[in-house]
Amino acid sequence: MKALNKEANENTDFKYTYKLRIAIIGFVLYLLLSTELSFKILGLIVYTFYNDNTFIINEKNEPTFLAKFIMAVIIFITLFIF
Questions:
Q1: Out of 12, 48, 61, 80, which could bridge 23 as a Cys pair, Cβ 3.0 to 4.6 Å?
Q2: How many domains, in total, are found in the chain?
Q3: CA distances from 63 to 4, 23, 56 (A)
Q4: Residue 68: inside a domain, yes or no?
Q5: What DSSP string runs through 4-61?
Q6: CA atoms of 53 and 7, how far apart (whole Å)
Q7: 3-state secondary structure of 78
Q8: Is 62 helix (H, G, I), strand (E, B) or coil?
Q9: Residue 82 placed within a domain
């Protein structure tokens, strides 16, 4: 009985380790391969709650570092959960 519990715990730990690894890889890939459209969508979402979205997209219509980080965290959480 203890062997089954130990095996189940190891299997669960492996699943979470694998999920965490995939989520980190997705986080890095998203930082490298992010598109302008996704930041415009994020800007629209932020503009719904705040009237100023300049901390997401600057005057040159480029995403800021904060915007890239927020989108990468969203992808990280999505990949980790699913």
A1: 80
A2: 1
A3: 50, 22, 6
A4: yes
A5: HHHHHHHHHHHHHHHHHHHHHHHHHHHHHH--HHHHHHHHHHHHHH-S--TTTB-TTS
A6: 50
A7: helix
A8: coil
A9: yes
- Amino acid identity, position 10: E
Residue 57 belongs to some domain of the structure: yes
Structure tokens at 67: 């915007």
**Phi, psi angles (nearest 5°) of residue 23:** -65, -40
- How many angstroms separate the CA atoms of 31 and 15, rounded? 24
Residue 9's pLDDT is what?
59
pTM score over 0.85: no
Looking at residue 6, what is its pLDDT?
A: 58
Q: What is the pLDDT of residue 3?
A: 54
Q: Tell me which residue range forms the domain holding 74.
A: 49-82
57 bridge partner residues: 63
pLDDT digits (tens, 9 = 90+) for 14-67: 678 888 888 888 888 777 767 777 777 788 878 888 877 677 778 887 888 888
